[in-house]
Amino acid sequence: MLADIRSQLDSSQRSNWLADTQLRCMTQSYR
Questions:
Q1: pLDDT, mean over the chain
Q2: Looking at the record's lineage, which domain of life comes first (predicted)?
Protein backbone atom coordinates (compact mmCIF):
# COMPACT_ATOMS: atom_id res chain seq x y z
CA MET A 1 0.00 0.00 0.00
CA LEU A 2 2.75 2.45 0.91
CA ALA A 3 4.60 1.65 -2.32
CA ASP A 4 1.39 2.32 -4.27
CA ILE A 5 1.00 5.79 -2.72
CA ARG A 6 4.66 6.47 -3.31
CA SER A 7 4.39 5.50 -6.98
CA GLN A 8 1.32 7.72 -7.41
CA LEU A 9 3.12 10.66 -5.80
CA ASP A 10 6.15 10.02 -8.00
CA SER A 11 4.06 10.02 -11.19
CA SER A 12 2.23 13.20 -10.16
CA GLN A 13 5.54 14.91 -9.41
CA ARG A 14 6.87 13.81 -12.79
CA SER A 15 3.84 15.18 -14.64
CA ASN A 16 4.09 18.43 -12.68
CA TRP A 17 7.77 18.70 -13.61
CA LEU A 18 6.94 18.06 -17.27
CA ALA A 19 4.29 20.78 -17.28
CA ASP A 20 6.71 23.15 -15.52
CA THR A 21 9.45 22.58 -18.10
CA GLN A 22 6.96 23.01 -20.96
CA LEU A 23 5.77 26.30 -19.46
CA ARG A 24 9.36 27.49 -19.10
CA CYS A 25 10.14 26.61 -22.72
CA MET A 26 7.04 28.47 -23.90
CA THR A 27 7.79 31.59 -21.87
CA GLN A 28 11.41 31.61 -23.05
CA SER A 29 10.35 31.26 -26.68
CA TYR A 30 7.98 34.23 -26.29
CA ARG A 31 10.85 36.51 -25.23
A1: 86
A2: Eukaryota
When pLDDT is cut at 50, 70 and 90, the band that residue 31 belongs to is low
Residues with Cβ within 8 Å of 16's Cβ and at least 6 positions away in sequence, in order, are: none
**Predicted structure pTM score:** 0.49
Cα torsion 7, 8, 11, 15 to 10°: value is: -170
d(CA 14, CA 11) in angstroms, rounded, equals: 5
Radius of gyration of the chain (CA): 14
